[in-house]
Amino acid sequence: MSTRTGSCLCGSIKVAIKGAPVSTNICHCTSCQKSTGAAFASLAAFRASEIIYTESEPSILKTYDDTSSESGRLVKRKFCGRCGSPVGGSREGFEEFSIVPIGILEGDKSDLKPPVELFHKSKIDWIPTLEGSQLFETLPSTP
Ligand SMILES: [Zn+2]
Ligand SMILES: [Zn+2]
């Protein structure tokens, strides 16, 4: 299988992913709105062991411990210390998975269309739902 690649806006952080996504979703939670600056986050979860981050210089890959998440669990949000792009994250208790913003990935994204939308209760009202997507008020009870 080919390697999927991605980077932050300035290119200081590069990501290489070997495996297929475990799941993809759109997240409307207020933490994702703030951390991305966008109306919602589009995210793909991969096995953490299949993701390699490389930095152009030491320690430019930063991590913010987000304790405000609506899930009530700590979310570790990775971002570039130079351009500020969000480049990944993991949720406490699910560290075997890394969640990557779909927008930082290169190439064809047709296999990444999210089938589920999370935290629908926080969705901005002028954002339409994706056709056929399954909506969750918060999170599904099983991850
Ligand atoms: Zn950057
Ligand atoms: Zn979110």
UniProtKB/TrEMBL annotation:
It holds the Pfam family GFA. One of its GO terms (molecular function) is metal ion binding. Residues 4-127 form the CENP-V/GFA domain. Keywords: Lyase, Metal-binding, Zinc. InterPro entries: CENP-V/GFA, Mss4-like_sf. SUPFAM superfamilies: Mss4-like. Belongs to the Gfa family. This is CENP-V/GFA domain-containing protein. It comes from Xylaria grammica.
